[in-house]
Design goal:
Elements: H1 9-37, E1 46-51, E2 59-62, H2 67-73, E3 78-85, E4 88-98, H3 100-103, H4 113-119, E5 123-125, E6 132-137, E7 140-150, E8 157-166, E9 169-170, H5 194-216, E10 224-232, H6 237-251, E11 252-257, E12 265-267
Antiparallel strand pairs: 1-11, 2-3, 3-4, 4-10, 5-7, 6-7, 7-8, 8-9, 8-10, 11-12
Length: 268
C-alpha cells in the first residue's frame, strides 16, 4: 500500500469511536469544571466551629497525636482529647480544620467513624437511635450524623456524633448511600470482616459525597472542617444522646457569617 491509499473502513470506524469517546470525556470534564467555576453558587450563610478546652466541672486532656496520623490528615490544625468528670473520662473529642490551600490535598474529608472506627475493629450497632440528630447552638440548629459502635469484645458501647463543613456549608451524608451496616448488640461477630466492612463503608461514603457535592454545588477545594465527639452508652441511648446534645453547646462555638452583608457575623 502506498502513501496515497485510503484508510480502510475498519480503522476509520475505530478512529471515529476514539474521537467520540475523547469528546465525551472532555465534555464531562468541562461540565464539571464549569459547574463550580462558571457563575459558582454563593451561599448567604457560612459556618465555622471553634472548640473550647475550658468547661466548668470538667478537666481536659490532650491526646498525643502520632506523626504519621498528622501526615495522613494533612494538617496540624487538630483538636484531639478527652474531657473528664471527677477524674472519669466522659467525652472524647476531635476537630480537624483545613484551609483552602491544604484541603486541595484531600478530595473530601473521609475520616468518619463509619470508616475509621470500623477499620479499628468497632462494630456499628442499633439500639433504636436515629442516624442523624439536630444540635442547637443558641438558636441555630445544625444536623449531625449519629452512630453507636460496640467494641469487638462487646464490653463497651460508644455513641458518636459528627459534622462535616465544606466551604462553610454543612455536608449532609445521603441516607441513600448507607456507610454503616449495623447489627444488634450481642449478635455473633464470627463472620464479621472489619476490612470488608471498612471498604464497603469507604466506597459508599465516597459515592454519597460525590452525589452531595454535585447536588449542592459545594466546591470540593474550599475550606474543610470535621468535628466529632462521643460518649459511652449504658444501653440507655436516649440519655447518652441528651448528654451529647448538652455537651455540644458547651464544647463548640459556632461562628456564623453572612458574606453578602459586610461585617455581619455572630458567635453562638
Amino acid at each position: 500500500m502506498n502513501s496515497g491509499s485510503p484508510i480502510p473502513a475498519a480503522p476509520q470506524a475505530s478512529l471515529r469511536r476514539a474521537l467520540i469517546l475523547a469528546g465525551l470525556f472532555l465534555l464531562a470534564v468541562g461540565s464539571a469544571w464549569g459547574w463550580y467555576n462558571v457563575n459558582p453558587k454563593r451561599f448567604d450563610t457560612v459556618y465555622q466551629f471553634t472548640a473550647r478546652t475550658q468547661i466548668p466541672g470538667m478537666a481536659y486532656r490532650t491526646n498525643a497525636v502520632d506523626e504519621t496520623v498528622t501526615e495522613s490528615l494533612a494538617t496540624t490544625n487538630l483538636v484531639d482529647g478527652v474531657f473528664s468528670v471527677a477524674g472519669v473520662p466522659k467525652f472524647a473529642v476531635f476537630m480537624g480544620t483545613w484551609d483552602a490551600a491544604d484541603s486541595k490535598q484531600m478530595g473530601v474529608v473521609a475520616h468518619t467513624p463509619d470508616i475509621c472506627w470500623v477499620g479499628a475493629g468497632m462494630v456499628p450497632v442499633v439500639l433504636g437511635q436515629p442516624s442523624r440528630t439536630e444540635l442547637d447552638f443558641h438558636g441555630v440548629t445544625l444536623p449531625f450524623e449519629l452512630r453507636i459502635f460496640q467494641s469487638r469484645d462487646k464490653s463497651h458501647l460508644e455513641m458518636t456524633a459528627w459534622c462535616t463543613l465544606l466551604s462553610g456549608q454543612v455536608f449532609e451524608e445521603s441516607p441513600t448511600f448507607e456507610a454503616s451496616k449495623p447489627t444488634t448488640p450481642g449478635a455473633s461477630l464470627d463472620n464479621y470482616d472489619a476490612g470488608q466492612h471498612q471498604g464497603d463503608a469507604s466506597r459508599a461514603h465516597s459515592a454519597g459525597q460525590f452525589v452531595g457535592i454535585l447536588k449542592n454545588r459545594i466546591a470540593g477545594d474550599g475550606s474543610k472542617q470535621f468535628v466529632r465527639f462521643s460518649t459511652g452508652v449504658d444501653q440507655d441511648w436516649k440519655r447518652s444522646l441528651a448528654e451529647l446534645q448538652r455537651f455540644s453547646a458547651q464544647w463548640l462555638e459556632l461562628h456564623v457569617t453572612h458574606p453578602s452583608v459586610a461585617g455581619a457575623a455572630s458567635v453562638r
